[in-house]
Amino acid sequence: MKTDELTFEEAMEKLEAIVEKLEEGDVPLEKAINYYQEGMTLSKLCGDKLNSVQEKMTQIMNEQGEFAPFEIQEEQ
């Protein structure tokens, strides 16, 4: 499965598994570097997915079916 096809949860599971392997400390240097690079890719993927969700959460669909920024109106 390609990295960009992963869900946020799948990417987090893989990232946690990589962190556990690296924390064990008995990983050969070259393999550790590969794990690190894969971990950074997964970290970026998770960050991008979170940013995408955050952008969607700040918008609301208006009457025309278009997304518009969501603004909270405070009572005066």
From TrEMBL:
It is found in: Cytoplasm. It is an enzyme of class 3 (hydrolase). Bidirectionally degrades single-stranded DNA into large acid-insoluble oligonucleotides, which are then degraded further into small acid-soluble oligonucleotides. Heterooligomer composed of large and small subunits. It catalyses: Exonucleolytic cleavage in either 5'- to 3'- or 3'- to 5'-direction to yield nucleoside 5'-phosphates. Pfam families: Exonuc_VII_S. GO terms for biological process: DNA catabolic process. The gene is xseB. Belongs to the XseB family. Keywords: Cytoplasm, Exonuclease, Hydrolase, Nuclease. Its EC number is 3.1.11.6. Coiled coil: none annotated. Gene3D superfamilies: Exonuclease VII, small subunit. One of its GO terms (molecular function) is exodeoxyribonuclease VII activity. This is Exodeoxyribonuclease 7 small subunit.
